[in-house]
Specification:
single chain; 323 residues; mainly alpha; 0% strand
Amino acid sequence: MLFGTLFALAAGLMWGLVFIGPLLLPDYPAPLQSFGRYLAFGLIALPLAWADRARLRQLARADWIEAAKLGLVGNIVYYLFLASAIGHAGGPLPTMIIGTLPVVIAISSNLRDAQRDGRLPWLKLLPSLALIGAGIACVNQVELDHLRADPHADLGRYALGGLLALGAVACWTWYPIRNADWLRAHPDRSPRAWATAQGVATLPLALAGYAGFWVWTAATGSALSMPLGPRPWVFVGLMFAIGLFASWLGTLCWNEASQRLPTTLVGQLIVFETLSALAYALLLRGAWPPLLTGVGVVLLIAGVSWALRIRPEPMPEAANAPH
């Protein structure tokens, strides 16, 4: 339990970095950032795949297809939604919408995976979910007040950013549940090799997307200077940094956590990503968080701490099944 929680914390700290990429590259469209990040991830995975080639040979064709699905939905499409949302609404609002993931995943996995993981009793889980929800609501209220105080705010643009963030939530509700399915079904396989396999499977998808976007910009007469945009060294450096720390190392830590903890609890630990992203965004703003934001953070941490005290109870069918 302790090591699983520490691995989830490390993943959250690294995944929080992906929220500042679009803030540092506002002159780069979301598709270029998404395809660029995962192109970098795939290139980083190649030498790692060579070093882990013995373990990767154990993967069947069906495993590679699953890795490609996870890479497409959980990596490329998710980050396309997220980068677009941040481009439209700024950093904090999408961060808080993504912050609902602990609640969404906890409810989804408790409904779906009770036979495998045991069911966390709803009455015991309710205080944790309420604390997390209240924390997210507090931080959200601060951002809404900030928005109302800005006379130049485009409410339609912010609303579209919110909708795009909901698309990211849908992608990342599906991803950890499916990823945990594979890891729990293959307890003898290396989480490190599985993270590398997802990078390798994502590479051709990202390469095709990058090439397609390049063709589209040429066909539409876009002023964007391809293939690396107006600030090539900043773009390449940031993509490789995010690809290494957030994509590969973050996925590795998350896989380690997923093999050690029930999916319902792992889902709630995504709150570490929200806290990290919020901290990074406030650092970029150069501002201390308002009191209500601090209250929200404390509530989020309290909700996660409460959840970690709950132990899954086996379902009657599972308890009586022959061994």
